[in-house]
């Protein structure tokens, strides 16, 4: 097969055959195709798209490019969750122990952050001693015993996605619905869960900026789940401001623990409950989303969710004392308060730019493999819609140097719009939920 013909076919808007897609993924996995040819096809796919059949074939080829994690020895219906990526999006650290605490096992592989959105694995690594590189055998043992494990992706899981994502990231080919859908679903299929809840972010801090594209991505992935025999629910949730108030690795761990202690309400709790309740629905543990939310809230009130979090820390070597003493978590020494330069109402936040501010502090990566400053980040003090007076604190920035703090503060000032009149409407937090039977 001549790969140039495949590139030209897609460039001209043609439909690729299963053999051509298979040839492509094999070449990506074994290194026989050069990066420039792979990148050309990626760009052609971004510009010309792929239909449902091509996207499903690409997904399955990618899922099969490495090992498949077999969770059958863990009893019960296993549920997984994936977010398309946002800012202060700490839901996994909250919902995984909560869902596990009501008896639905969560054996979850997560990734590191790249770009402005944080990764669960980076957050967990900010906990002294916590081991994310658990073996498959250990993961299955933890899954059988406590029903919870949060781990990094094993090396042989979807190698095609690892290679493709690294190239997409540097060739302007991330924002393609078929490529995002195949990337996410191939990992989730290979990770072995029976049911998957997808958190498709929509708004200024997300890949999908509007409801139409978020809905297209969500339905593409839900349909794919149906084809491959996995139950999938996609929740389209708002990313027009940071989800929680804490942005950064150890900072997000602190906020997640505060939610599990029942000390924090608001958007982060609401999205965590919505996703968690839909995981319980998929597992058949509850009959309605409301019932699921009530069960999860109950396990916040009675401390069972926090106890499950503690159990996870113990089993994976993390210091459990962090739960009572946040001083044991890293926090950068230099601190800068960012003050409002005028008074009025916060009408909007450019959330991607707030993510960019967090990268400036050292909490997020500018390039793959960049070491993070686990104690760096931002504590937001305001949400959109609220009134603010000149000189009032908008956010507090933490970093290792004054220069980095000031640079992050500049991004924050640009990201937050203050106007005289209150905005008439704020975008919804939960836009839509797409279930396979819908
Ligand atoms: N998250 C992924 O895992 N892959 C993408 O392509 C985009 C977001």
Question: What report would you give on this structure?
Answer:
The protein is an alpha/beta fold and 438 residues long. The protein has 3 domains: 3-49, Transferase, Pyrimidine Nucleoside Phosphorylase, Chain A, domain 3, CATH 1.20.970.10; 79-324 and 431-435, 3-Layer(aba) Sandwich (Pyrimidine Nucleoside Phosphorylase, Chain A, domain 2); 330-419, Aldehyde Oxidoreductase, domain 3 (Alpha-Beta Complex). The protein has helices at residues 3-11, 18-30, 35-48, 52-63, 91-101, 120-125, 136-145, 159-170, 177-190, 211-227, 249-260, 267-282, 289-301, 304-315, 351-361, 402-415; strands spanning 79-83, 106-110, 148-152, 195-202, 231-238, 246-248, 334-339, 344-349, 377-380, 387-388, 393-399, 416-419, 430-435. The strands form 4 sheets. It has a 4-stranded mixed sheet with strand order 1-4-5-13, with helices on both faces. The longest helix has 17 residues, at 211-227. It is globular, with a radius of gyration of 21 Å.
List the SSEs and their pairings.
Elements lengths: L2 H9 L6 H13 L4 H14 L3 H12 L15 E5 L7 H11 L4 E5 L9 H6 L10 H10 L2 E5 L6 H12 L6 H14 L4 E8 L8 H17 L3 E8 L7 E3 H12 L6 H16 L6 H13 L2 H12 L18 E6 L4 E6 L1 H11 L15 E4 L6 E2 L4 E7 L2 H14 E4 L10 E6 L3
Parallel strand pairs: 1-4, 2-3, 4-5
Antiparallel strand pairs: 5-13, 6-9, 7-11, 8-10, 8-12, 9-11
Helix pairs in contact: 1-3, 2-4, 2-8, 4-9, 4-10, 5-11, 5-12, 5-14, 9-10, 12-13, 15-16
Bound molecules: uracil.
Uracil binds next to α9.
The secondary structure category is alpha/beta
- Strand tally, please? 13
**What percent of the residues sit in helical stretches (DSSP H or I)?**
40-55%
Using the coordinates above, name the CATH class of the largest domain. Answer: Alpha Beta
Taking all Cα atoms into account, the compactness measure Rg is 21 Å
The major pleated sheet works out as: 4 strands, mixed
Number of domains: 3
Strand order of the largest sheet: 1-4-5-13
Bound molecules: uracil
List segments where confidence is low: pLDDT < 50 over at least 5 consecutive residues.
none
How far apart lie the N and C ends? 41 Å
CATH superfamily of the largest domain: Nucleoside phosphorylase/phosphoribosyltransferase catalytic domain
* Count of helix runs: 16
* Arithmetic mean of pLDDT: 95
Order of helices and strands: HHHHEHEHHEHHEHEEHHHHEEHEEEHEE
What CATH architecture label of the largest domain applies? 3-Layer(aba) Sandwich
Global shape: globular
Here the CATH topology of the largest domain equals Pyrimidine Nucleoside Phosphorylase, Chain A, domain 2
The proportion of strand residues reads 15-25%
